[in-house]
Specification:
The chain is of the alpha/beta class. About 40% of the residues lie in helices and about 20% in strands.
């Protein structure tokens, strides 16, 4: 385990079983004044994650002891900590599965370690940036209420009983973007620019986030709130 001396510096958990590659990543991260932890197996990754609560996780998919996808599932059951998946496989199925399970980014080996540092910094900026000044009044769309100051969204039933939606930061940003201009159709590129500005995410990544967001809205009783406009994108739509 290696750390810098600044306790407030973000802590990065690197989960990688290739010793040469992990040594390079750790060196680059430390040179960029980030604190680091290293795990070479899935079980060790979960143990260190629970013990130290890192700011972000760099997680390889192919790991001894427990597959990286299974590690991601357990992390997502416990936390919204940002996770960047790394793998030697370029299979789109692995990529989409990781994103659907809640990964924040995905990098295919071989990669430039300097690129990894930039992606780590980008995800940390998106996750921990200070909230921008905005109107204190929550957004209300039908039975849905979005509080931009508290970063929460709630759905109210007929008796006005609230149900909190367990949204990730990206899902929350997409929902706010759509709710600020209801009935306006946003293209996938516009949503990427508004909600993932430092990412090189593909259109399918937005589709994956929207799919999970829709499911959470439906579970809270907000059915058919997000409409797909074929060939264009998405909009928040409510006639009543």
């Amino acid at each position: 385990m290696n750390r810098t001396n600044t306790a407030t510096t973000p802590l990065v958990l690197v989960v990688e079983d290739e010793t040469e590659l992990s040594d390079i990543l750790l060196a680059y991260l430390q040179r960029d004044n980030l604190r680091t932890l290293h795990a070479a197996t899935g079980p060790d990754a979960l143990r260190l994650f629970r013990e130290h609560q890192p700011s972000i996780v760099l997680l390889d998919i192919r790991l001894p002891g427990k597959d990286g996808v299974d590690v991601l599932k357990e992390i997502r059951q416990e936390s919204d900590t940002p996770v960047i998946m790394t793998t030697a496989l370029a299979d789109d199925l692995d990529k989409m599965l990781s994103l659907r399970l809640g990964a924040d980014d995905y990098v295919v080996k071989p990669y430039n370690p300097a690129e990894i540092i930039e992606r780590v910094r980008a995800v940390l900026r998106r996750t921990f940036r200070a909230p921008e000044p905005r109107n204190d009044a929550p957004l209300r769309i039908g039975q849905l209420e979005i509080d931009q100051q508290a970063y929460t969204a709630r759905a109210f039933d007929e008796q006005e009983r609230p149900v909190v939606l367990p949204l990730t930061l990206t899902e929350f940003r997409i929902l706010v973007c759509l709710a600020k201009r209801p009935k306006r159709c946003f293209s996938r590129a516009e949503l990427i620019e508004a909600c993932l500005p430092e990412s090189d995410a593909l259109d399918r990544v937005i589709d994956s986030h929207l799919s999970k967001l829709r499911k959470k809205l439906q579970d809270a009783g907000c059915n058919d709130l997000i409409e797909t406009v074929r060939g264009i994108g998405y909009r928040l739509w409510r006639d009543t």
